[in-house]
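STRUCTURE:
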């Protein structure tokens, strides 16, 4: 295996160790692989996953590339797709990489490629402050505390199960609600379009289990004295890590112009409910909380070796 024997016990972020879970040998040998790109399909550049195929000349490709290329090797035109590259499959399985959010506190490790699946539901994924002109980002708990400390407004506090007024000035485009004290943030946004105003409700949270799982009911009564009411219910509030000001294609309540009249403020009511009792995951969260203040960084997910951060 291309690599370098390492006697140092220090591990570097984003550098995998080989053989940590390999074979179950009592004494597993390990090394360092510097070019993780070797483990990506040379055709599509995605992480190689089993099965991996090779042509008679030893060129490799992932299974989806083999079928796209109609089993013709892109390097030498020999057939590819009949023979597996067993050794490459073993290597890919034996290389263990940390979660891309390791620098934010996640301690999970995965065989190469699987960390990207986990990343989508990692509770340490960065969330961004929804306040205008604020560049803070951090793990969700840190963000909630940051928001409470810096942007909190008692008027915009919600308690689960209680109906509250959500008055959103259309020109503001966003209203951020925060659960009592330093709880989760809910962004109520509006988008003025030709047919009317689209209203969305999203929780700012990673898509991890037990975090920011709410249902909600939103209602709007026309201010023109009528009794017409629009309501929108969602069994599961969408979770986002960062607010977007792009008009949504689904998951919104449409307030048509004739319902708005001359009003520049949407006077809505919202009732937010917890989907289930939030699980106690405080051990994991506490670690994250400690780092919260130093967390104003961009999520540049490049391959640099930022070792020596601690220790
Ligand atoms: Zn491929
Ligand atoms: Zn070939
Ligand atoms: Zn993670
Ligand atoms: Zn902020």
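SEQUENCE:
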């Amino acid at each position: 295996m291309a690599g370098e024997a390492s006697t140092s016990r220090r591990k570097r972020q984003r550098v995998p160790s080989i053989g940590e879970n390999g074979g179950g040998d009592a004494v597993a040998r390990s090394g360092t692989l510097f070019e993780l790109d070797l483990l990506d399909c040379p055709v599509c550049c995605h992480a190689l996953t089993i099965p991996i195929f090779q042509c008679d000349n030893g060129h490799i490709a992932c299974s989806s590339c083999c079928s796209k290329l109609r089993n013709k090797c892109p390097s030498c035109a020999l057939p590819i797709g009949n023979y597996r590259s067993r050794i490459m499959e073993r290597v890919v399985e034996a290389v263990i990489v940390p979660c891309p959010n390791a620098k934010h506190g996640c301690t999970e490790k995965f065989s190469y490629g699987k960390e990207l699946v986990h990343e989508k539901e990692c509770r340490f994924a960065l969330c961004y402050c929804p306040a205008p002109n604020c560049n803070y980002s951090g793990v969700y708990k840190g963000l909630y505390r940051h928001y409470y400390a810096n942007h909190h407004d008692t008027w915009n506090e919600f308690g689960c199960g209680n109906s509250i007024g959500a008055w959103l000035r259309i020109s503001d485009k966003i209203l951020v609600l925060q659960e009592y004290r330093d709880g989760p943030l809910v962004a109520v946004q509006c988008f003025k379009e030709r047919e009317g105003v689209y209203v969305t409700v999203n929780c700012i949270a990673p898509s991890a289990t037990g975090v920011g799982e709410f249902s909600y009911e939103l209602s709007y009564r026309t201010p023109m004295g009528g009794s017409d009411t629009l309501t929108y219910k969602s069994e599961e509030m969408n979770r986002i890590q960062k607010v977007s000001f792009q008009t949504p294609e689904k998951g919104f309540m449409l307030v048509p112009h004739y319902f708005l009249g001359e009003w520049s403020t949407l006077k809505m009511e919202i009732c937010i409910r917890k989907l289930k009792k939030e699980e106690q995951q405080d051990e994991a969260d506490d670690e994250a909380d400690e780092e919260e203040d130093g967390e104003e960084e961009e999520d540049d997910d490049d391959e640099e070796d930022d070792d020596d951060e601690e220790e």
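REMARK: Helices lie at 63-68, 86-94, 114-119, 140-151, 257-260, 282-291.
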